[in-house]
Amino acid sequence: MIEHIVLFKFKDETTKEQKDEAIKRLCQLADVLPGIIDIKAGHNFTDRGKGYTMGLTVRLESKEAFDHYGPSEEHQAVLAYLHEIGLEDTLAVDFVIE
């Protein structure tokens, strides 16, 4: 299995409603992309995020599912929305779960 973790930093003018929509769209990827075991996204609620205000975790069944996930049309559409609403930066970590 693969664990994919992403932190998101948005421009100050990005609204909570826009981020809520981003969370919804990210989580809906589980309905359309094969190999996703679990997907969660949410708002950071602490002061430890160093400007990153939203997080995502995706558990995928295999490296092949991970390799399909990133470049997929559905994932790219969500990324386009994130940029549209003011995505400034991301930080991602991916690791194998044995």
TrEMBL record:
Residues 2-95 form the Stress-response A/B barrel domain. It comes from Scopulibacillus cellulosilyticus. Homodimer. InterPro entries: Dabb, Dimeric_a/b-barrel, HS1/DABB1-like. It holds the Pfam family Dabb. PROSITE patterns: S_R_A_B_BARREL (PS51502). This is Dabb family protein. Coiled coil: none annotated. It comes from the Bacteria.
